[in-house]
Each structure stands twice: as structure tokens, then as C-alpha cells.
Amino acid sequence: MRKLQSVSFPLIALVFFILTFAIKVFIDGPYSRGEVSSAVAYTKYGTAAMACAFAWLYLFRKKKKKQIFLSEYKQMMLVAVLFTFITLMEQLGTGIYATTCYIELIKFAMPVILAFFMLNTLDFETFYKCMVILLWMSFIAYIIDLHNEGANVLDIFQADVANSESKTEHSGLSGISLAFVFFFTYFRRSRFLFLFSIFFCVCTFKRLALCFVAIALICKFFFPHVMSKKVSKSVLYTLKAGTVVVTGIWFWLMLPEQEHYVLAWSGKSTFDFTSGRSGMMRYLLDHSFKSYGFGSANDMINKLFGVPFEFDFIKIAFELSPLVLVIFICVFWNMSGHTFWGVCIIGFFVLNMITSDSLTSNFSMTLAYMVIGSINYYSQMIQNEKIFKGVENKG
Questions:
Q1: Among 22, 40, 132, 298, fewest CB within 10 Å belongs to which?
Q2: Closest of 227, 233, 239, 256 to residue 342, by C-alpha
Q3: DSSP strand E in 86-232: where?
Q4: How far is Cα 29 from Cα 31, in angstroms, rounded to an integer?
């Protein structure tokens, strides 16, 4: 009986994990069109919690000594605690108490929690099959969403590359599809799945994601061994410092006084170049925004304009202080696990957080963490123990 229960916990956790992504990819589209209620759309967080609960029960019974992705998990959870503490202090100071802030905190912490528990519950074979299921499931949901919008994947051949416009564009699945590209580029059991994930990501037609698809193709065919290379601490320190500097420059460029620089470079106003995001930032500055916690800037802009505030790094600086932003940037780069491919994955999210948003893309972030964990830990286990032949990156 005990053995049956022990075996059942990972299976149940896996079912809830897949169900979580099924709700995400199949329900988010109808929810955005107003066809289903928020109560239905938000059930994915309940199923994610159930996946974590059964994974925890399995780990508690097994008493696994060596837990993978543990250092990264601890660091990000400390950041989540810091975010929560400052949010509490700011709400006590302002007298403004918004449940939205705590919902944002849950969404922030969820990806690393879910990734950590699933990585320590699933063996690599199961995880690989899970990724295949999620890939096909996401693509089917994507086809359905396109159909409901009166489009199909063949419209990708009519895309306006110059203006970055396509009927096939899909913000909700772009990050998820790129996570599949990262995974199937590194673990190359199937060339078809690699090419299929590339096609899927290209169809979702997000400029930054397309740049990283190009990197994946170059690495796959010309420099396959570089993906496993360790990145030195000095390089990581440089990336952290560079991110802080670039974020500061981006903030400076978004100010009205620098409008002419953006206009000369892009031929567009700052507002048009950033799809209106700079206007939201300027509004907060012009009205002397006073933070009442993590997610408060997003909460205020959403209430006023019906859109989120999407400059993630600038948002953290506004809401929690520039110092907290620096801490977050340092910890977030540590999530890369010091491999070139992990740095590429985190690099995508870093660039997106500077110019747009990824903190709200918690399910693509979950997959990204799991891909990094699989690269940094599963591949080591495979190499050391010589199990699962053909999985490791042979080049």
C-alpha cells in the first residue's frame, strides 16, 4: 500500500501539472475574449497548487537528500520574501491595502515553486514526455485561438516583417513556445520536435523571441557544443552590471526630454515605439506615484487605462526601490545555472523585462526554469550515471 501511494504521488502531481497548462493554453484565449469568467481562468493556479502539494508529499515520503534546483529555488524565494516584506511595510505606511499586490506576489513566486517541485518529482524520461505533450497541446490551443480570430498558421507567410505585424501573432503563447525551442534544441532526441518547436515559435511572431530562435538555429547547426559550456563568474558579474546600466539607459530614453533620440533612431515617437508603455511610465512620474507594494503601479495603471504597466524592471524600481531591483537582477541571472544555454534563456527574459514584461508570464517562466534545471542537473546525472542513453548533448 505504501509503495502504491509513493508511486501515485508523482503521477497525480504530473496530471495536475499538465492540467494546469491545459487550462492556461485552452482557457486564456476565451477569457481574453470575455467568453469565460475569471473564476474559470484562475483555476489553473489551484491545479498548480495541487501539483505542488502532491509533489511535496512524494518528496516528504521519499526524504530525497539531494534536491535539484535547490540553490536557485532558495535564492528566488528569499527575493519573494523581500518583496512581500516591503509590500507590507509600504501598505502600512500609505494606509492603502490592495489584494492585487498579494495576487501579484503569488504569481511571482509560483513559477519557481512549481518548477522546483516538479523537477524533483519527475525523472527525465517522464519530464521529456511531458514536454512533448505540452508542446502538442499548446500548438492545438494556438490553432484554435487563430481560428477564433479568423486566421490560420499559413498567414505567417503574409506577415509584415518591417512593421512586425502578423495575423498569427500570439502574446500568450510566444514565451511558452520559445521555452520548447530552448528545450528541444538542447535535448535533441527528435529533429522533428526541434523543427516543430521552431515553427510554432516563429508563428507566434514576437520580435525578441524570433531573435532567440535565430540563436537556437545557429547553435544547433554550427556550435552545438557551446550550449553546455560553463559561463565564468566574471561574465555573469558583467551581465548583472550591464543589465543595471541598460535598464537605467532605457529609463532615461523613455523620458520626454529624450524623445528626439528615439525619433531619430526609429522614426517613431517613444509612445509608438513602445506601444504606449512609455506613456504609462510618464503618467506615474507626472503624478508623483507613491507605491503601496509590489504590483501597485500595475494596479493603478490597470484601473485608470485598462492596460498593465509592462516595464518590469522599471516597475520594480518604482514599487520597491532601485536597490531591490539590483538585488532581483543579480538573483535572476543566478537562475541561469552558469551554462551558456541557461544564460541565453535568462537573457531572453531579462531583455523582455527591460522593454516589456515577463513577470506576468508566469507559465512560460515555469517552463524556462524547468528547462534550465533539466540542463544543469539532469544532464549531469545522465553523464555521471550513464542512464538514458542518447539524451545528453552529444553535438
A1: 40
A2: 227
A3: none
A4: 5
